[in-house]
Amino acid sequence: MNFTIGVDLGGTNLRIAAVDSSGKVLERVNASVVRERDAVIEEMCAAILALAGRLKASGQMQGIGVGVPGIIDLASGMLHESPNLPGWEDYPVRQEIERRLGTRVVLENDANAAALGEKWMGAARHVDDMCMVTLGTGVGGGIILGGQIWHGAVGMAGEIGHIMVEPQGAPCGCGSRGCVEQYASATALKRMAREAVAAGTAPGLARALKEGGDLGSKVLFDLAAQGDEAAREIFRRAGRALAMMLAGLINTLNLPVYVIGGGVSAAWDAFAPAMMEEVRARSYVFEATAAPEGQQPNHRNTVIVKATLGNDAGLVGAARLPMLVADTQKSN
Amino acid sequence: MNFTIGVDLGGTNLRIAAVDSSGKVLERVNASVVRERDAVIEEMCAAILALAGRLKASGQMQGIGVGVPGIIDLASGMLHESPNLPGWEDYPVRQEIERRLGTRVVLENDANAAALGEKWMGAARHVDDMCMVTLGTGVGGGIILGGQIWHGAVGMAGEIGHIMVEPQGAPCGCGSRGCVEQYASATALKRMAREAVAAGTAPGLARALKEGGDLGSKVLFDLAAQGDEAAREIFRRAGRALAMMLAGLINTLNLPVYVIGGGVSAAWDAFAPAMMEEVRARSYVFEATAAPEGQQPNHRNTVIVKATLGNDAGLVGAARLPMLVADTQKSN
Predict the structure, then answer these.
(1) Closest B-chain CA to A278
(2) Topology (CATH level 3) of domain A3-116+312-331
(3) What's the confidence (pLDDT) of residue A323?
(4) Residue A298: pLDDT band by 50, 70, 90 thresholds?
(5) pLDDT at position B33
(6) Is B27 helix (H, G, I), strand (E, B) or coil?
(7) Residue of B164, B255, B286 lying closest to A248 (CB–CB)
(8) Do A284 and B253 touch (CB under 8 A)?
(9) I need a labelling partner for A291 at 20 to 30 A (CA). Which of A123, A213, A320, B280 fits?
(10) What is the pTM of this model?
(11) pLDDT score, position A287
(12) CATH architecture of B3-116
């Protein structure tokens, strides 16, 4: 069985997998990210070569796809901005990998790779057009149109975390204010929790903070599940913010499926009800419905659904990248 | 010279033109819209046949495209919702025209047709991907990707007038609140002017209203040009609202060109400065620049530019519709 190799390079973890053309993960390698970039690249390339070597008997390695966090210049393969990989700015990532491996690699933004993963093997596998929303340290996104990643004029498409949902809201690193990232990312949940504690309106959160909790999305989710009203309100606020973003996307693109993944999506039960209610009120004509995982969507409706691949979305999507390049070349 | 026929059916005017493959208007017919739909369809079909007959000597009629205001079911060719054409709801427009003419016609939403017109012969003629914003009674939009209209799952894409710019803002007919249509359409300008008069903060507008002005965008623009502060603030508000919508589109789609047309775009000088300033602050990475009309955009920038075809955008775009269908069939 021939295969490709996908790499998911995150701020803390480096994950590598060999994936066959049916989407099956044949073998995987996990490593931590030593925060010195040359060592990371060396380790990545050694692991890729070792993996390809081990699988040589069973098939040929057909290509390599790498997902990285940050803004990539698609033409040059440089990483322009990467808050989660300090020291990697303006580093020719693609060129450095290609030089060591002696072969072409396909470089992609991590949220775009995750979108491709969920489109190929996850919650959006029945459709050709979809949008992925990743709720992590920030809010990221990837848009797939006609089965391919929509990059836009210079590869900046999909920065949906910077859609405004509150004109005079919290200042954002991007220079704007009130971006959805300021209300629905893990960072935003923590900030809103601290604000609630400071305002004296969240005794349960104050207690958790005193007891050493970091008020991360996991702690907040547990508190919300236990009925803590302040924690529940924070998730409702996140849900409404996501809904304002989603309603704009629905009215603009009329995609059949929107998939919500990333770490914070584990708190789905806490934010989804408020999100669905608000999308229903704000999106033009169509009702937003949550379809059971992987169900064929009804094309009269818009489906907003939780991602199904979890941490593997970016990894599987990265492995898919060289397959799509090959498909495009064949059809030309 | 072979030609197609484009029809722009509006709430008050019916405009028909024969256009050749270079985009040249060979002949045009204008008629008023008698508000009884069967009579309008009869008149339209008679005018199309007469026009094709007159041009018979010079070339063959290759197809007919019709732009209509409202929401079209693309599969059935029915008009679902059409505030500007009362009585046309759930009317099989395409079928009725085809029956009378004995030939296929391509039906399209008017803002999508205008987008196609500006992409083919207007301000976006140098690019394949663009977004058209029409500022009229409402705020409409059309998105062109890869040279083709992006319809979305059920033809509802491009409803950018219902992107939210003020979470608790003015209620909108779509069921949401604070849609950009409530701040940047001709209707919204009038409402904001009336609100300013009622608040007693706009002596100049109050005077104009007393003297029989309707506080339409033309009257407001003249007042703004004469330095009336209340009128100027209304246009600044419209500009900022448009910017919030545009910044979201830029961050999501990273299109090279956004074209702003429709009646209110005549007041460009009054709203564009505030719009450009706000887009610059709110859009991720790229600076918004106004390019001189029709100039080749710099791909590192996002170009936001006034439409160049004026009232003809929808008409020319409608004539383009059958040409694109023919192209798609050829390439398949």
Answers:
(1) B176
(2) Nucleotidyltransferase; domain 5 (3.30.420)
(3) 96
(4) very low
(5) 74
(6) strand
(7) B164
(8) no
(9) A320
(10) 0.94
(11) 52
(12) 2-Layer Sandwich (3.30)
C-beta of residue A161 within 8 angstroms of C-beta of residue A138: yes
Which among B154, B163, B165 has the least Cβ separation from residue A167? B165
- Residue of B130, B257, B284 for testing the chain A interface, max A β-carbons within 10 Å: B284
Contact (Cβ atoms closer than 8 angstroms) between residue B164 and residue B179: yes
pLDDT at A319 over 80: yes
Average pLDDT over residues B67-75: 87
> Domain extents for chain A?
3-116+312-331, 126-307
Q: Cβ contact (<8 Å) for B159 and A251?
A: yes
Measured N-to-C along each axis, helices A217-225 and A268-282 cross at an angle, to the nearest 10 degrees, of: 80
Q: What count of CB pairs under 8 Å joins A to B?
A: 135
Question: At the top level of CATH, which class does the domain A126-307 belong to?
Answer: alpha beta
Query: CA distances (Å), A46 to each of A27, B26, B314, in order?
Result: 15, 67, 58
Q: Of all residues in chain B, what percent carry a pLDDT higher than 90?
A: 75
Which of A284, A301, A328, A331 best probes binding to B when mutated, by most B CB atoms within 10 angstroms? A284
Asked if the Cβ–Cβ distance from A166 to B167 is below 8 Å, we say yes
Least CB-CB distance to B299: which of A153, A160, A249?
A: A153
Both tokens of B195, joined, read 């609100």
Contact B167 A244 (CB under 8 A): yes
Question: Between β-strands A78-81 and A71-73, what pairing exists: parallel, antiparallel or unpaired?
Answer: antiparallel
Burial of B261 (0-12, 13-18, 19+ CB in 10 A): buried
Decide whether A3-116+312-331 matches A126-307 in CATH topology: yes
Most confident residue range from A35-39, A55-59, A68-72, A306-310: A306-310
CA–CA distance, B229 with B50 (Å, rounded to integer)? 52
pLDDT at A251 over 80: yes
Query: Do B14 and B33 contact (CB within 8 A), yes or no?
Result: yes
A19 bridge partner residues: A4, A25
B252·A300 Cβ contact <8 A: no
Q: Running DSSP on this structure, what letter comes out for residue B237?
A: H
Residue ranges of chain A whose CB lies within 8 Å of a chain B CB: 71, 129, 141, 143, 145, 150-160, 162-167, 174-177, 244, 247-249, 251-256, 281-286, 299-300, 302
Q: What is the mean pLDDT of chain A?
A: 91
The complex's ipTM works out to 0.93
Check if the beta carbon of residue A69 is closer than 8 Å to that of residue A81.
Answer: no
**pLDDT for A152-166, tens place per residue?**
988 889 999 999 999
Average pLDDT (B116-143) is 96
Tell me A286's DSSP state. Answer: P
Annotate A33-65 with DSSP letters as a single string.
--SSHHHHHHHHHHHHHHHHHHTTTT--EEEEE
- Under 8 Å between Cβ of B140 and B110: yes
What is the rounded average pLDDT of the residues A199-215?
91
